[in-house]
Every structure is written in C-alpha cells, then in structure tokens.
User: Fold Fructose-1,6-bisphosphatase class 1 from Dyadobacter jejuensis.
Amino acid sequence: MTSKGEKMALPVGITLDRFIKRNQGAFQFASGELSQLLRDIALAGKIINREVNKAGLVDITGALGTSNVQGENQQKLDVIADIRFIRALKNGGEVCAIITEEEDEIIYTGNDDAKYVVAIDPLDGSSNIDVNVSIGTIFSVYSRVTPRGTKATMEDFLQGGRKQVAAGYILYGSSTILVYTTGAGVNAFTYENSLGEFFLSHRNVKSPEDGAIYSVNEGNFDDFYDYTQRYILNCRKRRMSSRYIGSLVGDFHRNLLKGGIYLYPPTPHYPQGKLRLLYECYPMAFIAEQAGAKAIDCESDILDVKPVSFHQRNSIYIGAPKMIEELEQYFKERGDYVIKAARFEKVGEN
Ligand SMILES: O=P(O)(O)OC[C@H]1O[C@](O)(COP(=O)(O)O)[C@@H](O)[C@@H]1O
Ligand SMILES: [Mg+2]
Ligand SMILES: [Mg+2]
Assistant:
C-alpha cells in the first residue's frame, strides 16, 4: 500500500508471538527474556482491553477517591490497570522492578535475578475513561545496571532516554493496537478479539515527513510562551486541522500515521510541562525517532533530557520532522525571552 508502513491484507497474518520469535534472531545476544517481557505486557493489555470494552457496564468507571504521587485523582481503571500490569510483569519473571505513574516508589517484583526494569503509565488519558474516548498504556524498558540478584535501585531507572531497550504503547480505541520498538524500527499489532491474538497490521511504521494536524490543549493558549503562541497561530493561519482528544497515546498515534504534531508546553500550572519524562515522554520519543519523527522540548531532544527523579515532568513537542524543525525555528527566535510562560514579561521589562 503506501510508504507509511505496509498495511497487511488481513484478517489473519503474523501473530505478535511469531513476530517476536522471528525478530529475536536479529539480536546477537538475544536470550528470549525481552521477548517474554513483551508477551507479558501484551497479556496484561488483553486483560485491560476486556475491562475497557465493558467499562460502561460494570463498576470500573469513576474516581476511586484516592490520589497518586502527583496529586491526581486516581480513576478506578488507573488502579485496575496498574495492578494488572504489575501482576503480569511479576508472574512473567523477566522484570525485577517497576516504576508506575500510580505508585510513589519502586515496586519490587521479587524477581531479583531478572534482567529488566520497566517504567509504565498503566492508563493514559484517564480523563477520557468514563466518556468512551480512546485511552492507552505506555511502557519503557531498560536493562538493569545493578547486578542481577540484588535489589534494583534508582540508578536502573534514571539511565536516560537513549538507554531504553524497548518502548511501546497500547491504544484502546476503535480497535486495540500494540505499537512497539526495540530499536529496530516500529511495528504495530491489532488485537483480534475473537481469536484473542495481536496480529501484525502495520509493519515498519514511518511518520510522514510533514503534516497538517496540530494537537494541543488550546484552552491553555494564553499561558503559553509567546513563540509557542505564534507557532500555533501559524498552524491556524495555514488552516491546519486542530485535533486533540486529551489522550497522549491517541493523539500521538493519529499524528504518527497521518502526519502531525503534539504539543504540551509549560504553563504556570505545569511550569516544567505536564507529561512525565520516564513513562510518557521517553517511550513516545523513542518510538517517534524510530519512525523517523522527532521529539524535543525547547532545549534539546527529549531522549537527551537528563532524568533526575521517577515522576519528573517535562514539556514535549513531538511529531513529523518538518513540523518539529519549523517549531525549532520559533524556539531559536525566542532570543531573550526567559524560560517562563508568556504571561511572564521580557527580561528587564517593568
Ligand atoms: O487535560 P490536559 O491538560 O490537556 O492533559 C491531557 C494530557 O494529560 C494526559 O491525560 C496525562 O496522562 P494520564 O492520563 O496518564 O495522567 C495525557 O494523556 C494527555 O495528553
Ligand atoms: Mg499518561
Ligand atoms: Mg496514566
């Protein structure tokens, strides 16, 4: 079909399992542990897919009345997804420790001999759970740097975005799709409910060079930096389509296939940006770069941002390379604007 990643004539083609097996051979020192880890994530994804599909029927919608380390109200499905992924990774045996959006500290799985650690956003787009709009799961995998057999430490999780050995997301939308990379391109697998299997549906996904879609919460427009406002005004002037569902996974996936840009700039409420570096920005940036797209903040590539804490936030601009390069021009012109929201005056004014 098109060059944006071959769309396979389905219904039944290569299962995720078979694809993982076939591609394991591409890695000289492959031991099968990462393959098993990916299967464990897919298994938990199938369970969450089932929960999401019946969200309106059973009592899994609405807030739980608790809040997470970021002070956000936890939705029931946030916590259900958290429990399901932790359990699947514990039972799978390939992961020694986990960082999730829903828990403050490192979760030890008891598999101290295991090779990998995982950072995960169990349920992305929580504000959309109750209203039947696409939501997702985002994951990022590292080989541990501490010795096997010992307790994993902060060091294992704060290695930096370019040390990820795998990253991906599951989108629970009109269909459920698992998209991941292990550093050798990006492939997507669509879930076939009746067979209970993920099948390869988009091989070697590539972002279009340019696009005509911009995704940003324009409700925050007045809080953005002047130069971000000018970039968005330019998108409007060029009659680009404004598409924002409020689920990073959903907005990113659309833009990856069609060509677009997602922006979550700093605002007074989130002076560092809203999205979390370890389990939202890094994994999406790894996928983006593997698909020929780009991911930056106003200082550097997202994958080069230094990690200092588990739940640190960061601004992110991610999408088609030409659109990011154009945005970078606006950043370059910002000159002597201080790194604060537009409401903050120019250096030396007042
Ligand atoms: O409502 P806002 O401020 O536009 O934020 C929406 C963004 O926040 C998120 O919901 C944050 O993720 P979580 O739902 O996992 O907390 C993103 O998915 C989404 O892009
Ligand atoms: Mg999220
Ligand atoms: Mg979340």
Remarks:
- Residues 1-8, 336-350 have pLDDT under 50 and may be disordered.
